[in-house]
């Protein structure tokens, strides 16, 4: 897998030497990272604004003073961030069962310390790929929502009935308008939603 040059990896670990080693490893693979010494510091970063519209990954130590990695993970899960921000736990041998349980609850993976550089980077790149797919899906949903918002109320009324599979004549009867008017609205809906058929439109609207 080719490195994602627009990606950003967050490193959250209370051990400065671990953070520096990981940052160096990522730089050697042309991957950009940000370092945080605690879960609290990282949560402050998240409080400053939403994540940029780019792939992300979080390398997270299990045990840290203050808020643990597991508590931070649970908070990220509650906020619905795990798809766009896959979590890879960095764990010592004693914490492997805990990390495995976290994976079952939505963490992307875990790497046991000391970890293999190649194996870790491989998992990071796979996590970034998953994040990219989630980011693109979110971007698509936002675009689709904007397109629907740009429809007139009458166009939305026609669209709902088209999606239900109603013929133009029945739509016209229900809305007390002419069949020709239905055809005009239907064509505009297809144009604005960038679809060519009612089936394509129905499939598209399932994503919002």
From TrEMBL:
Residues annotated with 4-aspartylphosphate modification: 61
InterPro entries: CheY-like_superfamily, Sig_transdc_resp-reg_C-effctor, Sig_transdc_resp-reg_receiver, Tscrpt_reg_LuxR_C, WH-like_DNA-bd_sf
Residue stretches making up the Response regulatory domain: 8-128
Signal peptide per UniProt: none
Coiled-coil regions listed: none
Keywords, ordered alphabetically: DNA-binding, Phosphoprotein, Transcription, Transcription regulation
HTH luxR-type domain span: 144-208
A Pfam entry, by short name: GerE
PANTHER family (alphabetical): DNA-BINDING TRANSCRIPTIONAL ACTIVATOR DEVR_DOSR
Protein name as annotated: Response regulator
Protein source organism: Variovorax defluvii
